[in-house]
Amino acid sequence: MLFDSAFQRKFALSDKGVAMVKKGTLWTVVVNLVVMGGVGILYLVMGQLMDTLAAGLPPLGVLVLTLCTIVFLVVSFAVHSQQYRATYGLVYDEVKNVRIGLAEQLRKLPLSFFSRRDLADLTETIMGDVNRMEHVWSHVLGYLYGAIISTVIIAVVLLVMDWRLAIACLWGVPVAFALLFAGRRLIERNSARTRAAALEVSDGIQEALENVREIRSTNQEQCVLAALDDKIDAHERAMVKGELAAGLFMNGASVVMRLGVATTLLTGAYLIVSGQVGFMMLFLFLLVVTRIYAPFD
Q1: What is the CATH number of the domain that holds 261?
Q2: What is this structure's pTM?
C-alpha cells in the first residue's frame, strides 16, 4: 500500500502524521481536479464562442458565465483552504510532538551519554533535521502524492479523448522523474557533505563559546576566528556545490517536462492539417498542458 508501515518509518511519522499526509494528499487531488475544472469552463466558453461565430448560435448569457465563475471561485477557495490546513496546519502538531519526544528522550538519558556525544550534533538534530523533516511533511509528501494521483486521473481522461495528443502532452512527466532519480545519488552525497560541513561550523562556534575565557586569556582570538572562517567558507562551498548539482537536475527535469507544450503543439498541428482532429480538441489539450505540470513544481 502507498501509506504502509515502510512509508511511516521512512519519513519518521506517527500514526497521526500518516493520517495527516493522507488528508493532505486527498485535498491536493481535489484542488488539482477543481483547477482543471476551471480549464474546462474556459473550454466551454471557447466552444460556445466558436459556435456563435461559425453557426450563428446565440451566445452564452453573461449571467450564466458570471454564475459559473462565482461558483468556481467559491469552490476553489474552499478546497484550497482545506488543503492548506491539511498540509501545513496539521504539520505543526506533528513537529511539536517530535521535538517534545526528542526532548523527553534526552531528559531520560544518563549524563554519560552527553559526554560521549557532540552537543552541536544533538542541536543540529533537534533543530536542523526536524526543520528539514517539517519541510518534507508540509511541502512535499501531500503535494507529490496528490499530484501523481490527480495526474493519473487526468491522464486517463485525456487518453480516452485522444491518445496521441495525450502522449504528446504527458511524455515529459515520467522522463523528468527518471532524470531526477538518475541524479539522486549525487544529490544525496552532496547533501551529506553539506550537513557534515554545517556540523563543523556548529562545532567551531560551540567550542569557541565554551572556551572563550581561555581564548581571550591566551590572546588566541584571531587564530580561533580564522579557523572558524575557514569552516564557514568550507560550508559555503559545499552548499553552493550541492545547490548547483541539485539545481541542474531539477531545472533540467522541469525543462524536459515542459517540452510537452511543444510536442502537443506540433502533434496537434499535424492532426488538424491531416483532418484527424478539430481545432477545439487541440485547444482543450493546450489548456490542459498549461496547467498539468504546475502541481509537480
Answers
A1: 1.20.1560.10
A2: 0.75
